[in-house]
Amino acid sequence: MLTMRLELNEDKIVNYKSTLFSVAGLLLFSSTIMAADPTSLKKNTMSKYSRLTQLATPAPSAKRVDSERTYHGKTLHDPYFWLKDPSYPNVDDEPVLDYLKQENAYHKAFLEPHKALVDTVFEEFKGRTDETEESVPYIENGYEYRWFYREGEEYRTRERTSLATGKSEVFLDETALAKGHKYFVLGDWEISSDNRYLAYSFDTAGDERYQVKIQDLKTGQYLDDQLNDVQGEVSFSSDGKSLIYSLLEKERWHAKEIKVHTIGQTQDKDLTLYTEKDDGYFIGFNQTSSKQFFVISSSQGEVQESYVIGSDLSGDLQLMVSRDDGFQQTIDHAHGYFYLLANDTHKNFRLARVKDTEPQRDNWQTLQAGRDDSYLLSLQNFDGFMALKSRDKGFEKIELIEYPGKELDKGKASLKRTNIEFPEAVFTASVGVNPEFNTDFLRVHYQSMITPDTTFDYQVNGKQLVTRKVKKVPSGYDTNQYESERVMIPARDGVEIPVTLVYKKGFKKDGRQPMWLYGYGAYAATISPTFSTMRLSALDRGFSFAIAHVRGGAMMGYQWYLDGKLDKRTNTFNDFVDVAKGLVERDYVAAGNISISGRSAGGELMGAVTIQAPELWRSVNLGVPFVDVLNTMLDATLPLTPPEWKEWGNPIESAQDYALIQSYSPYDNIEKRAYPPMYVSGGLNDPRVTYWEPAKWTAKMRAEKTDDNLLVMRINMGAGHFANSGRYGRLRDYAEEYAFMFLAHGISQ
Hints:
There is one protein chain. The protein is an alpha+beta fold. It folds into three domains: 38-127 and 476-744, Alpha/Beta hydrolase fold, catalytic domain (Rossmann fold, 3-Layer(aba) Sandwich); 139-275, 7 Propeller (Methylamine Dehydrogenase, Chain H); 306-473, Prolyl oligopeptidase, N-terminal domain (Methylamine Dehydrogenase, Chain H), CATH 2.130.10. Helix content is 17%, strand content 31%. The protein contains 13 helices and 37 strands. The strands form eight sheets. It has an eight-stranded mixed sheet, with helices on both faces. The protein has a seven-stranded antiparallel sheet with strand order 7-8-9-10-11-12-13, with no helix packed on it. α3 (115-127) packs across α13 (727-744) and α7 (570-585) crosses α8 (601-612). The longest helix is centred in the N-terminal third of the chain and has 18 residues, at 94-111. It is globular, with a radius of gyration of 26 Å.
């Protein structure tokens, strides 16, 4: 499911239908544990803890311009509506740019006296970075592929070695491609089945409007073919003569057509494979593991429509699931059957199969029925087995399942399963890069809050994990020095919310030590318990780190997601606040000594909980925050608004939705009172959370808040949703944010 405000992070491809996340958010560093009187910690409030105040330099003050619009008989007042440039997506309005530059100057003024702290944090992060890291190789179509970093470089170099000749060649040097660009992101790449052509997509502005180039790997020359306004993903047809991609509209970050480009022709001659007529739907495609079919999908919220077509892209699209059926599905293929995960009969999905010659839903056979305690997440087919990932009662599991025989007992298969046994109870595992259909092992990625990223090959016959790589921490790391646990904390309505924590051994639950609490809670995206080298700087100095698995995500199943969207949206915010209060009651931390952060839709969460319970927080980091929810959902001209109505509600058509969103939209609920220190960030070219959302939040908050706590905003004038593109540039960005947090805790070195 493609969503608007996601943090995407994947090795080979920016997959616009994925919900993969990286908890590389704000992690704290300190050299002291407390500066406050320890005898009064438990009951202290934010105002007593705060030590980060406004600068002597006057803070920027945005002008107020009266703006009134009427909806459902109610007048919406917005004095900072003018911060949306009328010519957007071009931003050239001088008053708007002047204000953003003033805020950036104020942010720079904040950093100047703390340069040593930022440098220290940056060097710690960099010291834990393997400068010459390389991947575990994988084999595909007669070649062995790997990526590696050269020392000091920001981007990866990709190489392949012929299994026939042993000859190696660099086929993608991202550092060379990024040269001359302040921003560079490689979106997707693929090599044709005859190993002749390389196609790759890239973005040099941060607006996620990709270009595609095609190179002849035999000659090393680029073809004249160049594609523009591509959504990101690209794939060759099975004969290598054409390329499939999604085309973005010229003025909107929204794809409505899937195109087929013939190698050697100009883009204006590309054929249209699929057209989506409804602005409320996202489109995408993927190739099945068998390489025999492409799956074309169009989705909105909980509804997905899917078609299939042969991988040579000839013939017509065949409808598998209509949007009128009203459910989601994942489709793969092997041995004459489509295998599906579908939530048509149970919200947590069932496993089914159907002959590829008769794929209509009436012919589907259930192999595993949906269950309340098992949420089926992903499926990949191989020649000899299928790999199924699930989350059972909040704990992850990967199984290998043998294909059923031709005879199914009353429509149900007797499946032979092998559960992969991992070394910890609370962990994150995923099926890795496994491009070869015929394989005797499954590559998996594994990590936990205390175990670095580990690549395993699970040997199917031997039923054992073989370690291929453990993420190197050059400055040293001892997993035995840290502990992780999961606790359940009741929300105000009695529902138990999972919380995953990590801290250094010796951590005392006496309310004395600081905490960093992270949350997201939207789009059924789960913030899994993962490892972070940056986090070590916090843990080594007494911090605990916690993830609140609030509703709106899907930690406890698909219903967990449904219970945090639309008219149940406020559950997400309440869960986060109640988790914090529960952690205080259990003596993990004291009220007012909790730093919090979230990005994108998680930034909306940060805004909402800042409004609801400002006294709990020591500092707040709002990363590219979706805080102007009402105005965004009222603006149907924004390309990502119509598809989002199924997530948040449609305040244009529904007075009830208008009232609900207005009641919690963070920007609309800022009032005159004291708030904790805040760090806000955004990107001028961000198509997901537009730059004016953090800008309007900052402008209004400055005008309304009654305290002298520091509020700074950093707008990246040359990037989008994912900020700095280089690995060291991103570390520098994080170091600046962490410095803000440290100073809020009275830590200056």
